[in-house]
Design goal:
- The protein is of the alpha/beta class and about 375 residues long.
- It has helices at about 30-45, 70-80, 85-100, 115-125, 140-150, 180-185, 205-220, 240, 250-255, 280-285, 315-325, 335-345, 350-365; strands at about 1-5, 45-50, 105-110, 130-135, 155, 160, 170-175, 195-200, 220-225, 240-245, 260-265, 270-275, 290-295, 310.
- About 35% of the residues lie in helices and about 15% in strands.
- The chain has a 6-stranded parallel beta sheet with strand order 2-1-3-4-5-7, with helices on one face.
- Helix 1 (about 30-45) packs across helix 13 and helix 3 (about 85-100) runs parallel beside helix 4 (about 115-125).
- The longest helix has 20 residues, at about 85-100.
- The protein is globular.
């Protein structure tokens, strides 16, 4: 099979090389999700092509272009009336001809709005367009929402209840969760942090802020990394625990240095029938720390609630159980290793098998 990947670029990796036969590679500033997918597809001997640019005229990522003046010109061009729509059209045509020329079977992208698959498919009729959506539908921007209806398959970490507005619902495929165990595994190191929370706080996280404030009062060695300091009241003790932003590539090392990882979901997880956040498996795969979460039946699809994680029902239960873990940390080694073993099942080999099965099904329909 031939795959064309259109990664979203982030600033967490240095550029070394594209995949080689020995699989010793690092991609130019792309997420762990794409790195895991590339590794799994390569091991299965599928052909992979990668495009880092995302338009014809105005959209090549500013991380990839030159000086201040170049970036300023691009910013001005992006705001010219009608040019963005024209750019989407021409980039869609380009993707179509690219797929036709290289006989691409699957185009795989994430939260895409820079090209329209319905235009590309008119040129390359045998290509299927897959999109990865790692956020809830109501967090999607208007242009992304409108473009979702043009994809053949949409891969999602969540299975949403029927009363939730999900665009192009028939194309959504629930994968459960996916992680690259090798990317997160860490060797045991000295523990500098008692309790760690990595994530954000915004106006939509009022309950999360209250809970984290409680933790900051009860535990002196609590560290909070993420974003949203402006949403924390100036007099809040939580501000003293805020340590700033860490890139995704730095978080596994932080986890390894922590005894307890506090995993809090967003306020609206009740819209899900199945699914959980990515942090659940990422923490487990490090094999270094105890993960504490609020009791939720959805966790058990991935990890044994009694053998792999510690759960709490309210803030008082959390304080009691967190103190028990800190006082008897070594006795939780078996739990940490059990979680690591369970999480490894949800790897990218499993996910790529799902993609290939879906591709076979779609080819049968054609």
């Amino acid at each position: 099979m031939k795959f064309l990947l259109l990664p979203r670029i982030i600033e967490s990796r240095d550029f070394h090389s594209l995949p080689n036969k020995n699989l010793k590679f690092e991609i130019a500033n792309i997420s762990d999700h794409y790195a895991g997918l590339i590794k799994a597809l390569s091991l299965k001997n599928h052909e992979i092509k990668i495009l880092l640019g995302d338009s014809i005229f105005i959209g090549f990522r500013t991380e990839l272009v030159g000086n201040f003046f170049t970036k300023l010109i691009l910013k001005i061009l992006r705001n010219l009336p009608g040019l963005r729509q024209l750019d989407v059209f021409f980039y869609s045509v380009f993707i179509g001809f690219y797929c036709k020329y290289f006989k691409i079977d699957v185009v795989y992208c994430e939260l895409e709005r820079k090209f329209n698959p319905s235009i590309s498919k008119k040129i390359s009729k045998k290509t299927f367009f897959h999109e990865w959506v790692g956020v809830h539908p109501h967090f999607l921007g208007k242009s992304t929402m409108n473009n979702i209806k043009n994809f053949d398959v949409i891969w999602s970490l969540g299975l949403y209840k029927k009363n939730v507005n999900v665009p192009n619902r028939q194309a959504w495929q629930y994968i459960g969760n996916v992680v690259d165990p090798d990317a997160f595994e860490r060797k045991p190191v000295a523990k500098d942090i008692d309790i760690l929370f990595c994530g954000g706080v915004t106006a939509k996280h009022s309950e999360r802020i209250k809970f984290l404030e409680m933790v900051s009062k009860e535990f002196a060695n609590f560290h909070f990394y993420g974003y949203g300091l402006e949403y924390i009241p100036s007099e809040s003790p939580l501000r003293l625990c805020f340590k700033g932003w860490k890139s995704p590539a730095e978080i596994p090392d932080l986890i390894a240095k922590s005894r307890i990882i506090l995993n809090l979901t967003m306020d609206d997880y009740d819209i899900l029938e199945k699914g959980y956040n990515s942090r659940l498996l990422e923490v487990a795969c490090t094999g270094t720390s105890v993960q504490i979460l609020k009791l939720d039946d959805k966790i058990s699809e991935f990890l044994d609630i009694n053998k792999s994680v510690v759960t709490f029902t309210d803030q008082f239960d959390f304080v009691h159980k967190a103190r028990e873990v800190l006082q008897n940390y070594e006795s939780y080694r078996k739990m940490i290793l059990h979680a690591k073993k369970e999480a490894a099942i949800f790897n990218y080999d499993r996910f790529t098998n799902m993609i290939l099965e879906e591709l076979q099904l779609k080819n049968g329909e054609k």
